[in-house]
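User: Hi! I'm working on a homework problem where we have to compare a predicted structure to a textbook description. Could you give me the structure for the chain below?
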Amino acid sequence: MQSPIESPARIVGHGDHRAGTFLFGANSMLGWSIFHFGDLAELTPFCNGFTRSLPPGIERGIHLDDELAVAQLFAEEQPHTIVHCAGVCDVEKCEESPDFAYSVNVEGMRILIDHAPRDARIVYCSSDHVFSGDTGPYREDSPTDPLSVYGRTRVAAERLLLERPNSVIVRAGLWIGPSASGKNGHLDWLRYRHDRQLPMTIVADEARSAVWAEDAALRVCEIARASVTGIRHITSTRTVSRPELARYLNERYEIGARFELQNRQDRRMPHLGCVELATVYDDALARPLPSVVGSAAGS
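Assistant: Happy to help. Predicted structure tokens:
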């Protein structure tokens, strides 16, 4: 199904001199899932350059906002596909250091576009934070209305990539699965803080499209191999509130965590409301993934 938000440019044929896929941000929540559960051939994973101890299986690091390093990388190596999961995703850190957030998330995208091989396919894993949660459901053609600095950097980065042929933006909600650090993402966060007896507060009036990381990673890989361009949403069979999700994961994985509830308006940092991702498409790539609550991982 073609829509006004899909670029008229289609996938460009890759020359024989192109080989392999670069995965930037392989130690991010999204990148870690793609690295472990995805099925892209000849995958080369990169951490960000500040990673002190590289996770198992990842041997290379780079800052995408280091233009000289990025230019040198692509002068020496020419991937046919780039999956971009890198960036600063911590909402609080972005609010406190907006210049840093824009440098990493927006300038990093500009540098990537300027120096990546022109015929390489770029898949950008964006976020549902481009929406507020106050005006949904949200399709690919819905106006963005971010609440946070983080969300605004995602919107700015998306706008840059929408001008480039053979590129696609993938927006998803919560990916539930393991993290490289063992403390990021909703599941590992619950475990990590419970094990250390740290306090936990869950936003009572936030709801998201929550999917298993394995399912979402495989969908991103399908999109990467396809010829679609523009924007694609990863939808789920239902939205799930944060308290419902926390209770479900707590019981399913026998974590034993205890947490308090607080409304988003009482939180110090901006929080999403109900971000239900929907889609304008009806092809195989648009099929909703099973919601985390009530479904098996990897289903």
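For your comparison, note the following. Residues 70 and 76 are 10 Å apart (CA to CA). The two ends are 26 Å apart (CA to CA). Good luck with the assignment!
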